[in-house]
Amino acid sequence: MNLAVLASGYGSNLQAIIDAVDKGEIEGHIKVVISDVKDAYALQRARRHGIEAVFIDIKDYSGREAYNEAIAAVLEKRKVELIVLAGYMRLVSPLIINKFRGRIMNIHPSLLPSFPGLEGIKQALDYGVKVSGCTVHLVDEGLDTGPIILQESVPVYDDDTVESLQNRIHKVEHRLYPRAIQLFIQGKLSIEGRKCFRNEG
Ligand code: GRF
Which of 32, 119, 127, 181 lies at a 20 to 30 A Cα distance from 3? Predict the structure, then answer.
């Protein structure tokens, strides 16, 4: 299966996905990594592994739709079958969601539906929760609202900072995301309404 990863930043989840592909734990090919940030470290990780890395500058386009059309064109040209958002800091437009409905995944650093949107880790800490975690979900038109594929919790300690909690969550993300992608590739996920069922047989 042809995959594309969209990332705006450091790309540690991208790295976990690359490693899982190398180990055969994900039976797919990363055809392209796309970023909206020119010097995103994620792009360097892609190049280092011989994966096409594409920077698409929103400033080159008249608006959000035109920018998303440019992304869609790259995805369609490479016959991408699953789009993986890994720290991609923009909303995917309805244009892409409609073209790839049910074929876009995101990972979010909280137990959704708690603390969606930006700074999910800070939101959880500020709220004072004792447990947080991460969520892999399909992308729909809402903000972190699509059907949940996998979720895993981590404890929150009294002396946690955004950084320490983020590190704890990242470790889980790097295991959970490749697993969700492989379940998708194996056709083991089915969607009914907003529920995602796993048929692991
Ligand atoms: C992850 O924590 C993910 O949950 C969120 O953005 C972060 C990306 O981290 N969507 P990285 O760039 O993969 O290291």
Answer: 119
CATH assignment at residue 172: 3.40.50.170
Give me ligand 1 centre to Cα 63, in Å: 25
Tell which residue, 187, 42, 150, has the closest CA to residue 30.
Answer: 42
Secondary structure element (H or E) that encloses residue 137, with its range: strand 131-138
CB 150 within 8 Å of CB 135? yes
- CA-nearest residue for atom 5, ligand 1, is 87
Residue 88 counted as domain residue? yes
Residue at 200 is within a domain: no
Domain count, the chain: 1
pTM of this prediction exceeds 0.85 = yes
Q: Is residue 53 part of a domain?
A: yes
For ligand 1, whether the C-beta of 41 sits within 6 Å is: no
What confidence tens digit (pLDDT) does each residue in 56-111 have? 999 999 999 999 999 999 999 999 999 999 999 999 999 999 999 999 999 999 99
